[in-house]
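Researcher: We're reviewing a set of sequences before deciding which ones to prioritize for further study. For each one, I'd like a predicted 3D structure that I can look through quickly. This is Chemotaxis protein CheA. If possible, include the structure in token form so it fits the rest of the review sheet.
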Amino acid sequence: MTIDINQFHGVFFDESDEHLQDMEQLLMTLDVDSPDPEELNSIFRAAHSIKGGSGIFGFDALMNLTHVMENLLDKARNQEIQVTADTVDVFLQTLDVLKDTLAAYKAQAELPQEEIDASIKVLEATLASASGEVSEEASEQCADAELTNTSNDIEGFGFFDDEEPAQETQAENQTEEIEGFGLFDDEKENKSQDQANVEANAELSSQSQQSSGAQALKADEGFGFYEPESLPVKPAINDAAPSSLKQPIVKPVKPKPKAAAKEAASIRVDTNKIDAMVNLVGELVITQSMLSNVGQEVEGQVGERLQLAIDELQRNTREIQESVMSMRMLPVNMTFNRFPRVVRDLSSKLGKKVDLVIQGGNTEIDKSLIEKLVDPLTHLVRNSIDHGIESPEKRLESGKSENGTVILSAEQKGSSIIIGIIDDGAGLNKARILEKATQNGLPVTPDMPDSEIWQLIFQAGFSTAAEVTDVSGRGVGMDVVRRNIESIGGRIEIESSQGEGSAFYIHLPLTLAIVDGMCVSVGEQIFVIPLLNVIESFQPTTSQVKTLGNDKVLWIRDQYWPLVSLTQLMQVDDGITEPTKGIVVLLESSKKRYGVLVDSLVGQQQVVIKSLEQHYKKVAGIAGATIMGDGKVAMILDADSVASNCMNIPNEEVSL
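Model: Here's the predicted structure for Chemotaxis protein CheA, in token form for your review sheet.
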């Protein structure tokens, strides 16, 4: 019996991606003044695992580069050399080359041999220099070798003073630490250590998502909506020699060490299999709903027994659904943890001092959403640093701390996940946005609300620049950022105060699969309102219905509530438009609290969300569709989108 070793390539690539991410995270938080021996050991073991696996599969270029890196790490962990900020920079640049090399092997593409050779020379020169064995040849290698970081350009929009080019970087999806191919012993002095790793590395973890390989960060754009800076930006430092590398500026939060715990046995499962299971569970939910409808038509003792069986099926279906959905939920830190490196490299390149703060990283979100968040978040974070945060000199002149702050936050609110990218920089430049909008022929007025002005930056072609640099280049526009977010059922909002900073908030659905909903009727149509948005329902009296201008509002508990008629909003025939004759459902969205007028309440049930955008354009107020138990199609309301229809009517509290 022969074994096809190629079938293990996928496992090796996935685990190598994870090892590279673990190494990067550990290096970013490493205290060079007092390095933690265990952290250095973990970095060494990850490199050793990659080297061993690449040797088994015949990936010689990857093995050779990792072997040289491993030698330097071995000296560091044995305290034979002093770890400095320059050493860490060399390691990080080497990781970038390793990611490119791994991606080339995965895609069966041409290897970046020049980068590999240059990286090996720098590592050898660093090792010789740290060991006090600097030769003339090593010095020349160190001076001549450069590591090339693959990066995409950023679209420049021509609204800023000229700045020096900014350095791009690469980052991968942060995954749970898995020890995989560390089963090989290539060095006698490490034999006992490697043997100890064999059992620890035999288990594969299913908690990590399928990595996309060495995915180059796409560049964001400078959008020209911030206050310009007249101060020059510090020149870039691209020399690969250790002596020319800078101390990182960004200050990522270093996690507290956790006590070792016995990990539960786990296996690696293809995400396609989980997706297929989610789809089957969705069909099971629809079938259970159909049975419930049939059970209501059966009377007598048989009907009672059937209803009991259906109730049990409903409970079991819900448990299965919750279990399967939990497999798809991942902490948003899987995306957030790539940004300390992004902030570090870009802020250092621009000569700025930036503190990155991550909040709510444990908030869980559907895996499919996490994968599609990477590019929009990367654009927005880079934009905040490049054009939002001022230079240290400019900040001091404005009475601010010389260190700027970028906050990445995530929180669950109702049926939505809200992700924030917040900076304390210069803020958006309203006058410049209006000027550019006028040049582009967009309908604008000086008295437009700020919220509408900020949305202008999402117009296609709004930010075209006359000049291109490696920082502000031919990237993807903000219109594409918004389009990517809307493609997953989300939306983006902006808040900004000139001189104080800006905040971009991305609103996303908690899941794209199954939700609990309240079914309501409007005319002959059935609509589903996500239960997480529902506060209460009631039939209003005449005294509770007020008129404010051309709009009707509700006076409930000493507060005005905007009222939206679904009959009018959805243009349904024969629906109720008089509030006292229908039912009002009070909702709370991430934007606003308001009421919707419907004909009647039908019931509550789980529904499977089906996307409409494959066949129709995005419909305002609609999040998707579902199949009811009787086979009819019902629309699922988007509470945030419906709230946009009453944004000009404030919730106003009145004290009596």
